[in-house]
């Protein structure tokens, strides 16, 4: 893969007017400018259906950055960024419009990156037009983002289409969770610390919990969300990606092929969930009206544009098992939902309980050691350790104390880098290890499809309502409680 670190590149953003571009990509590009990470020869070409000239586009970009970045714009860096901006009015169905783009790109023979910040329904046309006009040379890369299908079959269709014109080494599939600092820290935490490296298996670990709890609802995305549900919107990608990183074996090195290979092995080892075990291994829910941060919020069925009969889930929890020697007998409990009590995400590793006679009178019940990797908010790592309560008494009295590491407090230079900032930079460098390959996406769908199909057969019976602002449906607790375990509480670490 040709790198462009020394030469700069042309970054074409299809969907220049869209939400993703405005909320995420443009603020990220401004921040990359500010941290001197964009090569002086790099150009950014917004492409979309608007009759903007370059000046008008620049104005729009500045407004988006102002709106979505939590800081004042520095004129020096804005000027630099603004000098790179071009606009191309494109209807993705018109070859004549792509000829205009070709004209802009032709000026230089440079690495070109196409960012498809557009709905997947337009992917096919973009890939085909680029291919038809030979805008897909080995100097080009293409970035696509979910939804990469709504099932194995539809995701294969997208992958087949893109692979007609681009090699896998040119395709960058984004899962923004892979760009989060705390997710990146999972590999060093696991493999660079001997304590964890040697004890990361079913002899020592009891179970793992992964929670992504959101306060937001569906944010005016009814049409998109209702055909996805939380399972396809969050589990198929973000939660399964985190699970694979927690469970995978050490890759040979950081090259994408080795990392992806190890993640694929885990995805292939997931025990199937289907109609025969759906009720034991899953719980799903949909929010009814409630209160979030002191404000009344409507039920899912009363959201803008809703269809009153929908039985789409906005919450899901799952008991996932990995059928390999390392993890046999260690369940991974996943849970994620919208309109829950707090926005937070964490991975909790519960170590096995110990039992010994020495302290039988000091402690009624030995608490489990747990390692809490809090991704958000306040990126932190916690571990509880059983200690003697200081005092002169003869008897040992034990209590669990918490060791805390908070990124912001401990690392003075810690600077929160947005996931898109990092992933854009990686794509400019041509490094694919933080991106998802075709096989990963398809293996994930192979595991998800039977669950979704089993739910469909069960119809509404498996869907429980939960109040917005709560912790989800009761079945989610019952699912884990029947294994004599509890969800880790956000407020009680
Ligand atoms: C997106 C989903 O991929 O991730 C959204 O489509 C979800 O529904 C979002 O809200 C959550 O991302 P984060 O980074 O806020 O946890």
UniProtKB/TrEMBL annotation:
Protein name as annotated: Glucose-6-phosphate 1-dehydrogenase
UniProt domain Glucose-6-phosphate dehydrogenase C-terminal: residue ranges: 188-488
Family: Belongs to the glucose-6-phosphate dehydrogenase family.
Molecular-function annotations in GO: glucose-6-phosphate dehydrogenase activity; NADP binding
Binding site for substrate: 176, 180, 214, 233, 338, 343
Pathway: Carbohydrate degradation; pentose phosphate pathway; D-ribulose 5-phosphate from D-glucose 6-phosphate (oxidative stage): step 1/3
GO biological process, one term: glucose metabolic process
PROSITE patterns: G6P_DEHYDROGENASE
Catalytic activity: D-glucose 6-phosphate + NADP(+) = 6-phospho-D-glucono-1,5-lactone + NADPH + H(+)
Purpose of the protein: Catalyzes the oxidation of glucose 6-phosphate to 6-phosphogluconolactone.
E.C. number(s) listed in UniProt: 1.1.1.49
Glucose-6-phosphate dehydrogenase NAD-binding domain residues: 12-185
Record's keyword terms, sorted: Carbohydrate metabolism, Glucose metabolism, NADP, Oxidoreductase
One GO CC term, this protein: cytosol
Organism for this UniProt entry: Buchnera aphidicola
Classification via InterPro entries: G6P_DH (IPR001282), G6P_DH_AS (IPR019796), G6P_DH_C (IPR022675), G6P_DH_NAD-bd (IPR022674), NAD(P)-bd_dom_sf (IPR036291)
Entry annotation: catalytic residues: 238 (proton acceptor)
Entry annotated with the keyword NADP: yes
Chain residues that bind NADP(+): 49, 91-92, 146
